[in-house]
Design brief:
Layout (H helix, E strand, L loop, with lengths): L2 H4 L10 E5 L3 E7 H5 L4 E8 L10 E2 L4 E7 L1 E6 L2 E6 L3 E4 L8 E4 L6 E8 L3 E6 L4 E6 L2 E5 L22
Antiparallel strand pairs: 1-2, 2-3, 3-10, 4-11, 5-8, 5-10, 6-7, 6-9, 11-12, 12-13
């Protein structure tokens, strides 16, 4: 296989992993970026069965995402709005807070397939408005909490606040 062949994959020939969580979430998906040698660009292919979503409603503080609907139709939740989506639609989800939170839901009676393309950042913060969670992701760190569990900067530090508090 030449270098050029290692940079090309056909969606129909990918091996998808089945993921499910409870009644609401299910998909068959694969991360394509690593298969193609991508370094700074993430790409995944998701096939979502009728009545399901592949992930919770969320926003990103570091990574920008774009979706391309390959086949089927569904619903896009974006910030406080909802709209129908269909094959051929391209969706941009820039970084931000709850106003850029997004989720793709298959509310149809056929499979919904889409590509997720994103920038890859070494550190990511995600917010989940429906469940009031905040997540921090980095190499070797996956931490999810709620704002109500927030600690003060000096909490647990020996000696407590000092002359450089807040520095």
């Amino acid at each position: 296989m030449g270098v050029i062949d290692s940079r090309v994959r056909n969606l129909a020939e990918l091996t998808l992993a089945h993921k499910t969580r409870g009644e609401r979430y299910e998909s068959h998906a694969v991360r394509i970026g690593p298969l193609l040698g991508a370094v700074d660009l993430g790409c995944s292919y998701d096939v979502v069965p009728p009545g399901k979503a592949s992930c919770p409603f969320h926003s990103h503080r570091a990574e920008e995402e774009m979706f391309f609907i390959v086949r089927g139709r569904g619903l896009l939740r974006y910030g406080g709005e909802t709209r129908a989506i269909r094959a051929g639609d391209v969706i941009c989800c820039p970084t931000g807070g709850p106003e850029t939170a997004h989720q793709i839901i298959n509310d149809s009676d056929e499979e919904l397939a889409y590509l997720s393309i994103s920038t890859q950042r070494p550190v990511e913060i995600c917010e989940y408005p429906d469940s009031n969670k905040i997540a921090a992701f980095s190499e070797g760190l996956d931490h999810i909490t709620r704002p109500s569990a927030a600690l003060e900067y000096w909490d647990g530090e020996a000696g407590g606040p000092g002359p450089n508090a807040g520095a």
